[in-house]
Design goal:
Length: about 130
Amino acid sequence: MKRLGRWLLVALALGGAGSCSSDAGTGPVAGVLTISLATPNSGADGAIQFRVTGPVAPTSITAAPGLRVFSQPLAMVTRVAITGTLTNGAVVTIGVADTRKVSQYSATIEAVAGSDFQLRPLTGYSLTISQ
């Protein structure tokens, strides 16, 4: 009986230790999300201004190669401007505390200008956010 009690105690201890050792993959996963542009004027756009909204402020913003990024201080709603020759595809990456919350982030275009600095109608433009 004592032997069975000891094994039961060991099994309970190991089972309890295993359940407390980690969050079983449910904790946040820090990383980057990519914001991509779809434009009807690929190669002819020179700047875009948009707003990024999320559950928490991004930890960083980095422009895609060949582009420059300007932003307000990082907050839950951050206004971003990108300059350079804009084409279809990734324009910026944002660092986030939890990449599994990608669906809670949004990017809304506020203005687009051609390489001649003239504002363009926003019809046909869109931004997507992905991992």
